Amino acid sequence: QLENDCAAQIAKLEGETATYQKRLAEYSKGIKDLYIDKVKGLISEAEFLELSADFRSGKERMEAQIAQNDVAFAGFQDRKSSDDNRLQIAEQYTNLPKLNREIVESLINRINIGKRDAETGELPIEICWKF
After folding, report:
1. Which residues, 6+ apart, have CB-to-CB distance to 17 below 8 Å?
2. Which of 25, 37, 67, 94 is surrounded by the fewest CB atoms within 10 Å?
3. Which mean pLDDT values do the consecutive 10-residue runs of the chain (131 residues) have?
4. At 24, phi and psi to the nearest 5?
5. How far lies 54's CA from each of 12, 51, 57, 110, in Å?
6. Helix/strand/coil (H, E, C) string of 28-97?
7. Distance (Å, rounded) from C-alpha 118 to C-alpha 131?
8. pLDDT of residue 129
């Protein structure tokens, strides 16, 4: 289930990135065409400045979206590899005939020990597993 969700998110990001790249190419072409129109005298200097500012703004937005999607994609890839590693560890230790100290130590990520409660004398211990 988790792998399917991750794959769906990655596919969604790839589709969005392709759309953003297409728009980015359109904005770049628009800037070039706009410059050519200015050189040919088809538009005034003021029109050129206004329209080119709009095109540059759109181009910058698309570049920012692509960069944001790249970061999210890398995060999903890291999460997927981490999940694969956890699954591999869990599969390695399923159906064990006997649980020994070495196996338990390999499954523990860390142990958090809190302050002793003055009233009850209890010492809180939290075991953080690798899976």
Report:
1. 66, 69, 70, 73
2. 94
3. 70 90 93 91 91 92 92 81 71 76 84 89 88 66
4. -60, -45
5. 27, 5, 5, 53
6. HHHHHHHHHHHHHCCCCHHHHHHHHHHHHHHHHHHHHHHHHHHHHHHHHHHHHHHHHHHHHHHHHCCCCC
7. 33
8. 83
Q: How far is CA 81 from CA 14, 78, 118, 128, in A?
A: 18, 5, 44, 20
Instruction: Identify any residues that bridge with 111 across adjacent strands, giving them in sequence order.
Output: 127
Which residues touch 66 (CB under 8 Å, ≥6 apart)?
17, 20, 21, 24
Place of tokens 């070495």: 102
pLDDT number for residue 67:
92
